[in-house]
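Office hours follow-up: a student asked to see two folded examples consecutively, so here they are.
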Amino acid sequence: MTRAGKTVEESIVERSRWLISLRWIAIAGVILTAAAANLVFKIPLPVIPLLSIVGILIVYNLIFTFLIVRLRDGFANLQISLDLACLATLVHFSGGIENPFLFYFIFHMIIASILLSRRAAFLQATFAVALFLAMVTIEYTGAMRHYCLVSFIIKDQHSNLLYIGVVSFVFVSTLYIAVYMATSITKRLREREASLAQANALLNEKDRIKSEYVLRVTHDIKEHLSAIQSCVETVAGGIAGELNEKQANLLQRADDRTAKLMVFVKALVEITRIKLAQEIEFDYFSLKDTIESAINFVDTKARNKGIIINSSIAPAVDMINGAQVYIEETIANILANAVKYTSAGGRVSIDVEDDGGNVLIRVRDTGIGIPKGEIGKLFEEFYRATNARFTEKSGTGLGLAIAKQVVARHGGKIWVESEEGAGSTFSIILPKGGVQG
């Protein structure tokens, strides 16, 4: 894997796509510049050679575009070498050493420094210098014709040895300094990214170990709590002997506290299991039936408060791929929260829409809402909004954290829009095909 969590092959393909995109921009730039030079500035340039080079650029860029999925790291070297050769030829046919665009070689050096190793980048710089010096030499000696930029250059400079020497020194030194600086920065960034990737991997491993420990401990606590709860219920039921009023009251309080603690421990076990699971079992199920089941789960509590849960499910919504039990628990939990924090006689609704390859689920209520500054923390583990703690004392602060984990494992997204005192809207997007995140 690479530092960004991508495979080496994916990283190479991504870099190659970037290089190919830059080349299309360069091709367009060459055509526009040549047209402007001839038509606007009246600088006579050899059209056929320039268009021939553009044609070569287009052909091999198309070849690299079609072969991109088969590219290997060496292809970046090859592409840059071809680009340098084409650039040198373009410069030769458009003024040679008189052409100010010869400094575009520097851009290629920066690209090479980003994409290639330091050694390969310096080799490309040496190749660029060789191309430049060869062009200057053959024009100076007359081995090949020099195409002067008439009306742009006052005096022909291709045979001026002093001019050639100064420009060559500046050009060559600039090329190598650019490569040195770019590769130095790139090297530091890569080392930093590698260090961060290693630290991130270590943190993930520590988080996994912590989760395993929490799972073991909470499982043991759950077993002990179950035993305590069973004993308390047995004694409270009078099986171990008749109780006076004070004893019955104390046992009832102990039973209530044990039940609340059991809810908390079960939620903690559940979120830890989800975090530790590499994959959760997916299968096709009816989302429509699942939502109706979730509504039935909270319907009694809603009716006791005079709240009717309205539902609207688009006809196209039915079978999706996922973990049905987890999805149902998530929707039921959000509905239960909506009922819990909505005053008697309020409104709760759930709407499900078809969104192409996804389904969009929205749960709206007219409840207490969420303070603006706390919305971003709502899906954190153990977090409860301040007004929620004031309205309802009991609560684990894990329900929405579990919902976020479940939705994320389905490759979906969950968010909330709310205004304190004006209700909340929880939205969930789930892929129909069940992509595991």
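And the second, which I mentioned at the end of office hours:
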Amino acid sequence: MDFIGTLRESAAWLCFTVAVVGLCVGSFLNVVIHRLPKMMEARWRADCAELDGREVAASPTYNLITPDSACPACKAPIRAWQNVPVVSWLALRGKCAACKTPISMRYPLVEAFTGALSVLVAWRFGYGWPLVAALGFTWALVALTFIDFDTQLLPDDITLPLLWGGLVANLFGAFIDLKSAVLGAIAGYMILWLVYWGFRLIAKKEGMGYGDFKLLAAIGAWTGWQVLPFVIVASAGVGAIVGGAVLFISKKGADTRIPFGPYLALGGILGLLWGREAVTAWLGRFPG
């Protein structure tokens, strides 16, 4: 039996293969999480300089591919074997091979987290092109989660392609019909837009960013409008518990800004995996 046939017939081999791919993607997501905000900042500075009529100084190429990864402390290049997900961090005992500067544990954690989520998605959807689409959805949300944690930004570079990706996937009926996907995108944006303006009028301050609107719109495009209540309840519930715990442990005030994007992302993943079943169990049927 050929390899594709093995993946089609064996759930164990499918999950193992997806786990390896997920670990490798997680390694790349570490690059995206670190570099994309810096790339955005560089674009903003260039745009501001152009608006001010100032000459924009040439700068070295900096994107998701160039320059090669290097130790931030000693600038020693990271070799291919040192990029093996999780294993290389363990082999190096969490330290740079050249200068022995500690390497953050978050790198292997992102890789392992991405790999574990990928296996969960493979187990849920099985072999087929919807699995590929669901993996792309999940990987994008992992990147958004950690970028939002670090910078409280949800880049349009990810949220907008994610929205269009959901509409394209559901154009072919991957997870929901196209009408439900379009209504999900509209409803996702409008729900948080109304919450934002209601909170701003009452509290006289902002409670979330526009990136949250776009993210929920993207999630709605993948799950359909029917699953959005489940996504919102799951996101708000987890956000309240985790956010409250963070404020208690850090002893910060209630005015401390806590990113909502990571909890929306978690709700979105749960919604794609089990939202339809949850809504059916709640209402006794799935709205059409």
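Two things to take away from it. The mean pLDDT is 90. Residues 188 and 217 are 4 Å apart (CA to CA).
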